[in-house]
Specification:
It is a single chain. The protein is of the alpha+beta class and 433 residues long. The chain has 2 domains: 20-225, 2-Layer Sandwich (Cytochrome Bc1 Complex, Chain A, domain 1); 246-425, Cytochrome Bc1 Complex, Chain A, domain 1. The chain is built from 16 helices and 13 strands. The strands form 3 sheets. A 6-stranded mixed sheet has the order 1-2-8-3-7-6. Strand 1 (23-26) and strand 2 form a beta hairpin. Helix 10 (273-284) crosses helix 16 and helix 12 crosses helix 16. The relative contact order is 0.16.
Length: 433
């Protein structure tokens, strides 16, 4: 039976809904969700976000939100951890719980015939978590394992150091998982307090796709979330990149060096964001990008290099990453600096823009390859405060970008002199500065 259910889910998730037919649904208590009805397959996917995430936890409870989120399916209400798992499997429901610096996310995919009991399980997990001592210790040790692996992983070491440089004493500078010391100090009571702070009515964002009507969804929203606290007073302050240009080297025994680099970026609500997004595609996304062509294809200095916009909810960075052999990393970094300066000074060509627009508009529909993916997009659009018709208009926005738009944004955003590198490895010919 379980194998048949898995096959059913695989088939169902492969059939996308009509993603542009979005309805705004508001419950009696005022909770809002975006819904795409898709009745051809008896399945419903939910993507639920709570704004704030790990950034709103107290500094002396570092890692509490991440640990708390990992415990939400480890027993709730009348169910201990094993019983909750058994009840979930009996209904062929799928739940996942996660946390980031900006949000707590919950994904649920359920059969329509089991919609009510499945959502009752989710309600219990969100509103009546047990935080039993046995489950708490088991999940805490799992988090400790994640932390220990990060302490020896070059990418993690570089990312952590870069965040410290970028954000100073802001919550974004802290690791998501906490430290071995901070996790050791946490208690089940800390989990209860983190739960009450992170999961509140005023932070909820919901995207839903599948075999459900607006009337059914409105009732479920109140049923599932009614018992959550109404609001939380925790506010994350705005911040920006605090480090200037330079190089930091973290010596780590490895034949390769990892480089994390970046400077101040752009916020998602900035009018120039789409132009910056297209510009970055030309700079460092995919096979044809400038960085990939110059550093990998022409010179073979890396297996991969990329750049990306990193719009946090309360800050924006423009970043990139690369790995190269210790003897080649210096040359690769010089090439990144060169391409950064070229973009800032000269912008892009008509040919580059046309190719980027063709790719970005052509690949966009591929994101909508399952109901679960669409539900996630609906929630993400709300989190970013984008309009409900964004999916329908997004490609038009990309195609409206001109060379002049990108060149203006490049001169504003791309800052070669402020580019900061964090290198983890044993790089040759590079000194920290």
């Amino acid at each position: 039976m379980r194998h048949l259910l898995s096959l059913f889910f695989a088939i169902a998730l492969a059939v996308p809904a009509s993603a542009t037919d979005i309805q705004k649904v508001t419950s009696e208590s005022g909770i809002t969700a975006w819904l795409v009805e898709e009745h051809s397959i008896p399945i419903v996917s939910f993507d639920i976000l709570f704004r704030g995430g790990a950034s709103i936890e107290p500094s002396d409870k570092h890692g509490a939100t991440y640990l708390m989120t990992g415990l939400l399916e480890e027993g709730a209400g009348q169910y201990d951890a094993t019983e909750f798992l058994e009840a979930t499997e009996a209904l062929a429901a799928r739940f996942s719980f996660d946390a980031s610096r900006d949000l707590v996310s919950i994904n649920a995919t359920v059969l329509k015939e089991n919609l009510d009991p499945s959502m009752e399980l989710l309600r219990i997990a969100l509103t009546e978590p047990r935080f039993d001592a046995i489950a708490f210790e088991r999940v805490r040790e799992q988090v400790n394992s994640v932390i220990r692996r990060a302490e020896t992983n070059p990418q993690s070491l570089g990312g952590s150091h870069f965040r410290t440089l970028a954000f100073g004493d802001h919550p974004y500078a802290r690791s998501l998982e906490g430290t071995l010391e901070s996790i050791a100090a946490l208690t089940p009571q800390d989990m209860r307090e983190a739960h009450q702070t992170a999961l509140t009515h005023d932070r909820i964002v919901v995207g839903v796709v599948g075999d459900i009507t607006p009337e059914e969804l409105a009732k479920l929203l109140d049923t599932v979330f009614a018992a959550l606290p109404g609001s939380s007073s925790e506010i994350v302050p705005m911040t920006s990149m605090q480090a200037g240009g330079g190089i930091d080297v973290i010596y780590h025994p490895s034949p390769q060096s990892v480089a994390i680099f970046g400077h101040a970026g752009i916020m998602r609500d900035d009018p120039d964001y789409i132009a910056a997004y297209v510009m970055n595609h030309i700079m460092g996304t995919g096979f044809t990008s400038r960085l990939n062509q110059e550093i990998r294809e022409k010179r073979g200095l890396t297996y991969g290099v990329s750049s990306f916009l990193a719009p946090y909810d309360r800050a924006g960075l423009y970043m990139g990453a690369m790995s190269s052999s210790n003897e080649n990393i210096a040359e690769a970094i010089d090439l990144i600096r060169l391409e950064w300066a070229k973009m800032a000074d000269n912008g892009v060509t008509n040919e580059e823009l046309e190719a980027a627009q063709k790719y970005l508009t052509g690949s966009y529909p591929l994101r909508f390859d399952s109901n679960g993916a669409i539900a996630s997009i609906l929630a993400g659009l709300q989190f970013a405060n984008l309009p409900i018709d964004y999916i329908a208009t997004r490609n038009d926005l990309v195609n409206a970008i001109t060379v002049e738009d990108i060149n203006r944004v490049a001169s504003r955003l791309v800052q070669p002199d402020k580019l900061h590198f964090v290198i983890v490895g044993q790089p040759e010919g590079i000194a920290a500065r």
